[in-house]
Amino acid sequence: MKNLIYAFVLTFLLFSCDDEDKDPILNASEEELVNTVENSVWRISLFIEDGKDETSDYSGITFNFLPAGKIEAFNGGQLMEEGTWKTLRDDGKLEFWITFTQNEILEEISDDWYVLSMTATKIEMEDDNDQFIDKLTLQKK
Asked: Average pLDDT for consecutive 10-residue bins of the chain (141 residues)?
């Protein structure tokens, strides 16, 4: 009888989980994210797109997040492109939007990223598409 009860409870727990349980939850505010990135230089320490680790494509590239939603990307001290960034909360999730339109490598990270975790020196994000969960981690330089 005990085994039957355990089996029932286990079955209930397994089937009661849904995709909502996998949604990123972060208690940080938009203002905290802005204050963390603004006027700071960051680099990509992890970028996975469509299941493939593409972090090495961003070796040597740094990002300067400026006020008023401007972002500059540099490679070896040379300006690659100026883009935009913004933060917002959508359905209770903190989003970090990064947009570049001129450089193919930088366009790859242009997306609306869900912030999973954030410290003063590291921001971990993800974006889900139809087949994969893309990941982007920024590390303060």
From this structure: 43 40 63 94 97 97 97 97 96 94 97 95 90 95 93
Q: Which of 59, 24, 14 is nearest to 134 (CA)?
A: 24
Contact between 33 and 99 under an 8 Å Cβ cutoff? The reply is no
Q: What is the pLDDT of residue 1?
A: 52
- Let me know if 74 is exposed, middle or buried by CB neighbors in 10 A (0-12, 13-18, 19+): middle
For residue 10, give the H/E element and its range: helix 2-16
Per-domain residue ranges for the chain? 22-140
Contact 101, 109 (CB under 8 A): no
How many Cα neighbours within 13 Å face the side chain of 19?
1
pLDDT for the residue 131: 85
Query: What is 22-140's CATH superfamily?
Result: Domain of unknown function DUF4822 (2.40.128.540)
